[in-house]
Write a structure and sequence with these properties.
The complex is a heterotetramer of chains A (about 425), B (about 180), C (about 210) and D (about 500). Chain B is about 20% helix and about 35% strand. Chain B has about 180 residues and is of the alpha+beta class. In chain B, the strands form four sheets. Chain B has a five-stranded mixed beta sheet with strand order 1-2-5-4-3. Chain B has a two-stranded parallel ribbon with strand order 6-7. In chain B, a hairpin with a 4-residue loop joins strand 3 and strand 4 (about 70-80). In chain B, about 35% of the residues are buried. By secondary structure, chain C is an all-alpha fold. Helices cover about 75% and strands about 0% of the residues of chain C. Chain C has helices at about 1-25, 35-60, 65-85, 85-110, 125-145, 160-170, 175-195, 205-210. Chain D has about 500 residues and is an all-alpha fold. Among the domains of chain D are: about 165-445, no CATH class; about 455-490. Helix content of chain D is about 70%, strand content about 0%. Chain D has 21 helices and no strands. Chain D starts with a helix and ends in an 11-residue tail after the last helix. In chain D, about 40% of the residues are buried. Classes of the chains: A alpha+beta (about 425), B alpha+beta (about 180), C mainly alpha (about 210), D mainly alpha (about 500). Chains A and D meet through helix 5, helix 6, helix 7, helix 8 and helix 15 of A and helix 8, helix 10, helix 14 and helix 19 of D.
């Protein structure tokens, strides 16, 4: 198919550029094909993403995402620093889920070197990763409401996220880029009083998620705007390498924490919610009012992607509670030599991030510095399906679809 | 199936395409010749026993010591299930060794559309040209997949070991000490 | 020339809108005192605006400028109606023309004009024929204007209330009223049919047409 | 602890500069004082004139006319001599009559009225903007502007206005200069003109037009053209989209709005807003919205169409932030953007003014006006009590403010509707509904006897429904106020030691 490239854009005369009132004849006003740049500065592109839209009136004929505005070449840094110095760079990949990034990279290196992580450290890691998953989903739900024009849910979501920020700040002093989970365990042990503050937060959060359902999820206008829009079939999702909530919303019950368990996730009991057709009832932990999928929703559409994240927040709360019960006193970090020599060999490990499967290919060559660190960002793959999904949709649907895929540019551009 | 069985099936079916195998270790993979890569990938995806339906990652690896560039394809086979959990059958990797001066390898974007962006990134950062890539353009570097992360007129491939960061780009100084020639 | 045009448009829009407000005079226009002078000023201002913005429409080729000039012209005509204490007519003129038709014209012209279709070549003899027709028309109009003696009715004490118009419509002029409504209905159905015959059928295509 | 420290430091700085401070009057205070003074002076003049008009003009008119009182606030012949003759003895010395001399020219009286009107409109709009930010904040469990001008940041929109005034006045390259500058004023002037025919009270109307309703609708229609022109002239693809969306939205909502307005006209029998308002004075059961079920549905239909007409709440597509950056207002900044904003809030008031006058018993309180007859004629205090309890501009403004509140409330809870859904809703759902309501109302007016059993039952049912809805509003407000700490939760919680 004729791909749209920047070269063609330069060639395209900007219809309105040389508008001089006298010379313009009426025919230039005809709404034939128009090239519109949504981004890189645009209120609803979640960061520095530029989507070139070829539109005919309100209907978008083709949408081509252009990325690379936030490219810092993190992988080059990976090849020049020791693994525990690379941890702060992993914070800045998916800057809304720094704990999960740290955890995945640490597990990859630990499996490569063969380090035994103490029991308490593993539990703290799962506790922190699931809390960060809740925080990340809160941001994506709030931002998605904003894309649809509902301003209020964003504020509620950030009000809840503030509580999680306080918990993280108490644990490791940072609010966004924690570098708390490192190779061999966690940098500092939990402060006393953390576990009851965490339990109190979970008591506070659970009814609030139900409140959002009333405010946004079951709102008729929201369902009309999101239901049946940007439908991705299971085959397309797998073909385009979609992972995480986007894959599950298309009906694929696949979650690395259950299908390829790591870090002791197999000992925790939780369900994997998937996109359900109209009237379906997603699995919910006990004590939570049973949500039901409203009319007009199709498996794999924007609404399902949004709602899978809501249900996952319920299960993450359930997981954090189990992790809190499982906490035993003990070492918080394994004893490691000063400069950790990486064995000659390679490993490709993927962890379940809030946005999908974050993969690390780490190749060691005997020196303390890895010879190659490849980062497979889930948003990078999730975003690649935009041009396939946004064909012949309305202009107002493009932010809806991109918002439901929930991308973070730090992870796309690396 | 275990890594050894997969290698055995591959050697039995496409013996000439396989250049080596390392099914032990944590990252079981098989070496494939660049020319026959597309057939191997086609077989891996469509064979009833293997069914690798998800291409997880395409990564370029630069090894200046042996003067070659590798391309690593990480594949995963997911066992679909109607309502309960999908099962992970097996994960496997395919590696191709290319000449560092003129790395060419056929594109697999037609088998897994996810490869489209991964291959563009591999070209952008390593200079590996994927022949037959759907988003190819012809410019000063000849026919190649379009760059995805760096600007289109960027010179050089950043992740190569021998890459030297440019002094300036459109007047923006690259290095502190190298004072760029005054613009204009 | 462009500056003059600019001032005409600005004066036109301002006086038209001011005229509508001020023109809506109290029901009893006082016979004497200074207001007749004000009325005369308003009348000539609005007449001038109507003429000049009409002229401006001919001169300018930019659609949206034409829209603004048309708005000024229609507003001025509405102002004149208000001056004549025909408030109903003034309000209808504003709603139907300035509010509704103008938007539809803008919308219609923008969506339907094909590129290059309106640049017909005007050859020599067509120009002459056009000129002749215009001159004859102009002379005819002037003769009509000068020869007939207009029935100068006294300034009506009461502005025609809506009730009076309504009663007249449904009693004395019922037949033309019904005929007009039938005509409108036929046009409505015709328009719907034309759009439908354009190849699209079914409701979901309408979503694409907007 | 931190807060007090800075204040004291700030305090000390002030003492240090004490000497200089007294000479430097805060500019805002002077400016605001001037505005208040002008508004008060105009209101005082209008009130004085209304007092004189009440005394003098009433009799002269009844004599001249054929019995029917044609009395408007500012119409009718009035000479200084007449005024002075009727003044009480002690006021009759030379300078007073000299003072009233200019009032005889109707143009002067109009000028006073228009100034008062513009004064009211600008003050109301300024506070509507501030109020929307406060209401939105409290809906979103935050505080909104708190700092500018003291108590709850009351001078916030004043500060915004001054900031907008001082912003650079730029016109985008390639924009159509004349139209770009003209568009905001084309948007604002018609909405202000709508106030000419909008009655605040029986005599509180600048021009008691016989076709007042049509005139106000016409003015709202012209504003659309300003948006299209603005969208086109700012040479920006996003604003072109905003302009086009406004055009298609206008085509969609105009017809259902017209049909919905036919119902109260049919019940009242006239287009004169003052007359329609006066027919609803016999207590709240006589309000049009409670007359028959079709009128109630017509009110809801009109309100939805009105939301679309002033681009509010779910229908704010022409300036949809998340899709079109800022729609037709993308290229506007500084004062021009302020004028567009002003026009939007003023049209919100005009639209709710129409809804109040036509459906919610205009300037009459729920108490039947008959009870207040004794108070009406009395002295100033009695007239004030009458104004507060029974009928007067305060009731009209209160109802309009309530409807504006509903519009604000809707904006901060509902997501935005898509353009084809708006067209579908208005053309294929509300238009047929409007026709059914019109037909139903016609049959109801003809077939159902005015005080027959059916009409009374329907009326009481609707009245009870109305009372229940009003009580529900108040109830929710009170309960939420009482439990506001428990609901909001996190604002009142103490942070962890480390945080």
């Amino acid at each position: 198919m004729a791909k749209l490239t920047d070269k063609m854009v330069e060639g395209q005369p900007d219809l309105l550029a040389d508008l001089d009132a006298e010379t313009l004849a009426t025919d230039d006003l005809l709404t034939e094909e128009m090239l519109v740049n949504m981004g890189p500065q645009h209120p609803s592109t979640h960061g520095v993403l530029r989507i070139l839209l070829r539109t005919d009136g309100e209907v978008v004929r083709e949408a081509t995402p252009h990325i690379g505005y936030l490219h810092r070449c993190a992988e080059k840094i990976g090849e020049n620093v020791a693994p525990f110095q690379f941890i702060p760079t992993t914070d800045r990949l998916d800057y809304l889920a720094a704990m999960n990034n740290n955890q995945t990279f640490s597990v990859a290196v630990e499996q490569l070197v063969g380090i035994e992580v103490p029991e308490r450290a593993v539990t703290i890691r799962i506790l922190m990763a699931e809390l960060n998953r809740i925080a990340s989903h809160l941001v994506s739900l709030g931002a998605y409401g904003l894309d649809m024009g509902a301003f209020t849910p964003f504020l509620y979501a950030f009000r809840e996220r503030e509580r999680i920020m306080d918990l993280f700040e108490a644990a490791c002093g940072a609010r966004l880029t924690y570098s708390y989970i490192t190779i061999g365990g966690v940098t500092m042990d939990l402060p006393d009083g953390f576990t009851d503050a965490c339990r109190e937060f979970l008591e506070y959060l659970e009814p609030k998620i139900h409140e959002y359902n009333q405010l946004l999820s079951y709102n008729q206008i929201f369902i009309k705007r999101a239901g049946g829009v940007g439908v991705i079939s299971a085959a397309d999702a797998i073909a385009w390498g979609l992972t995480g909530p986007c894959l599950r919303a298309s009906g694929v019950r696949w979650d690395l924490r259950r299908c390829m368990p790591y870090e002791g996730y197999e000992q925790y009991d939780f369900e994997v919610p998937i996109g359900l057709p109209q009237g379906g009832e997603p699995p919910v932990p006990p004590g939570v009012p049973q949500p039901r999928v409203p009319r007009g929703v199709v498996v794999g559409d924007c609404w399902s992607r949004y709602f899978v994240r809501v249900i996952e927040m319920y299960w993450s709360v359930h997981l954090v509670r189990q992790a809190l019960d499982r906490l035993r006193p003990g070492e918080h970090k394994a004893k490691l030599p000063r400069s950790l020599k990486l064995p000659v060999g390679e490993i490709y490990f993927e962890g379940e991030n809030p946005r999908g499967q974050l993969g690390f290919l780490v190749i060691g060559d005997g020196s303390p510095v890895p010879s190659r660190v490849k980062v497979r960002g889930p948003s990078f793959n999730n975003l690649s399906i935009t041009s396939h999904v946004c064909r012949d949709c309305l202009l107002a649907d493009v932010p809806a679809i991109v918002g439901s895929i929930d991308i973070v540019m730090g992870e796309v551009d690396r | 199936m275990t890594a050894e069985e997969i290698t055995a099936v591959l050697e039995q079916e496409l013996a000439d395409a396989i250049a080596g195998a390392d099914s032990g270790g944590m990252h079981p993979h098989v070496w494939v010749t660049a020319v026959r890569l597309h057939d191997v990938m086609q077989f891996l995806r469509d064979d009833s026993r293997l069914q690798f339906n998800m291409l997880r990652c395409v990564s370029g690896v630069d090894g200046p010591a042996s003067n070659e560039i590798d391309v690593v394809y990480d594949l995963l086979s997911m066992q679909p299930a109607v309502s309960e959990l999908w099962r992970a059958r097996h994960a496997f990797a395919v590696k191709v060794r290319l000449d560092r001066a003129n790395p060419h390898v056929p594109s697999v974007a037609d088998l897994w559309p996810t490869a489209d962006w991964h291959e563009r990134e591999a070209y952008d950062l390593f200079g590996i040209v994927f022949d037959g890539h759907p988003d190819s353009i012809k410019d000063h570097d000849g026919l190649h997949p379009q760059r995805i992360l760096c600007p289109d007129d960027w010179v050089g491939y950043p992740l190569r070991k021998d890459y030297v960061f440019p002094d300036e780009y459109h007047g923006i100084p690259g290095k502190l000490e190298a004072v760029p020639p005054g613009p204009g | 020339m462009r500056h003059a045009l600019r001032w005409i448009v600005m004066a036109g829009v301002w006086s038209a809108l001011a005229g509508t407000a001020w023109g809506a005079e109290a029901p009893v226009p006082p016979a004497e005192s200074s207001s007749t002078i004000l009325e005369a000023i308003a009348f000539y201002a609005m007449a001038a605006v109507a003429l000049l913005s009409g002229l401006a429409i001919l001169v300018s080729r930019n659609l949206v400028r034409n829209v603004v000039c048309l708005l000024a012209a229609l507003g001025a005509v509405a102002g004149l109606y208000f001056l004549l204490a025909a408030n109903l007519l003034g309000a209808i003129q504003l709603i139907v023309y300035a509010g509704g038709t103008l938007v539809l014209i803008t919308f219609g012209v923008m969506l339907t004009s094909r590129p290059g279709s309106d640049r017909q070549l005007v050859r020599g003899w067509e120009r002459i024929a056009g000129g002749v027709v215009c001159v004859t028309l102009f002379i005819g109009l002037c003769m009509v204007l000068l020869c007939t003696e207009w029935a100068t009715v006294a300034a009506s004490a009461e502005p025609t209330t809506v009730a009076a118009v309504g009663r007249a419509l449904l009693t004395d002029y019922l037949v033309p009223f019904e005929l007009a409504s039938v005509l409108l209905l036929v046009m409505l159905i015709g328009a719907a049919y034309l759009v439908r015959r354009d190849g699209e059928s079914g409701a979901e295509d309408d979503a694409d047409r907007c | 602890m931190a807060e007090s420290h800075t204040r004291s430091a700030y305090g000390t700085a002030r003492q240090a500069g004490g000497g200089r401070r007294s000479s430097r009057r805060p500019a805002a205070l002077i400016f605001f004082g001037a505005v208040v003074a002008v508004v008060l002076f105009v209101w005082a003049l209008a009130a004085a004139f209304e007092y004189v008009d009440g005394l003098v003009v009433a009799d002269s008119h009844r004599v001249a006319e054929t019995g029917e009182i044609v009395r408007t606030r500012f119409g009718g012949p009035l000479t200084t001599a007449e005024i002075v003759d009727y003044l009480p003895e002690r006021l009759r010395f030379r300078p007073v009559s000299w003072l009233f001399w200019p009032l005889q020219f109707s143009l002067v009286r109009d000028a006073i009225a228009v100034t008062g009107l513009v004064g009211f409109v600008s003050v109301f709009t300024m506070y509507a903007i501030w109020w929307e930010r406060k209401v939105a904040a409290h809906i979103q469990s935050r505080l909104g502007p708190m700092r500018v001008g003291g108590w709850h940041g009351w001078a916030q929109s004043l500060a915004d206005k001054i900031k907008l005034l001082t912003k650079e006045d730029l016109v985008p390259a390639g924009a159509d200069r004349i139209l770009y500058r003209l568009a905001p004023y084309m948007a604002f002037t018609p909405v202000l003109l709508a106030f000419v025919a909008l009655p605040f009270g029986t005599y509180w109307v600048l021009r008691n037009l016989d076709v007042a309703l049509l005139f106000v609708l016409a003015m709202l229609g012209i504003e659309v053209i300003a948006v299209i022109v603005a969208g086109w002239a700012s040479n920006n693809k996003w604003s072109l989209y905003g302009g086009m969306r406004e055009a298609s939205q206008m085509v969609a909502y105009e017809s259902p709005m017209g049909l919905a307005l036919l119902v109260p006209i049919m019940l009242a029998g006239t287009l004169n807003l003052a007359a329609i308002g006066d027919q609803q004075q016999a207590g709240f059961h006589m309000w049009v919205v409670f007359r028959n079920p079709f009128a109630a549905v017509a009110f809801v239909l009109y309100f939805v169409a009105a939301l679309a007409s002033c681009k509010r709440a779910p229908f704010d597509l022409p300036e949809a932030e998340s899709e079109l950056v800022a729609g037709f207002m993308t290229e506007y900044s500084g004062f021009r953007w302020g004028v567009f904003f002003f026009a939007e809030y003023t049209s919100m008031f005009v639209v709710s003014g129409l809804a109040t006058t036509l459906f919610l018993g205009a300037w009459y309180s729920p108490l039947p006006a008959g009870w207040g007859e004794a108070l009406a004629g009395g002295g100033v205090v009695a007239r004030a009590a009458h104004g507060l309890l029974f009928s007067g501009p305060l009731w009209f403004i209160a109802k309009c403010v309530a409807l504006v509140y509903v519009q604000i409330w809707l904006r901060w809870t509902l997501p935005r509707v898509r353009i084809d859904q708006v067209l579908y809703l208005f053309v294929q759902v509300l238009l047929p509904l409007g026709m059914v309501v019109l037909l139903g109302n016609t049959l109801w007016v003809f077939l159902v006897p005015e005080d027959g059993i059916v009409a009374v039952v329907a009326n009481t049912l609707l009245c009870t429904a109305g009372v229940i809805v009003a009580a529900a509003f108040l109830g929710v407000a009170v309960v939420a106020r009482a439990r506001r700490y428990r609901l909001v939760g996190s604002l009142a919680v103490d942070h962890l030691p480390g945080a």
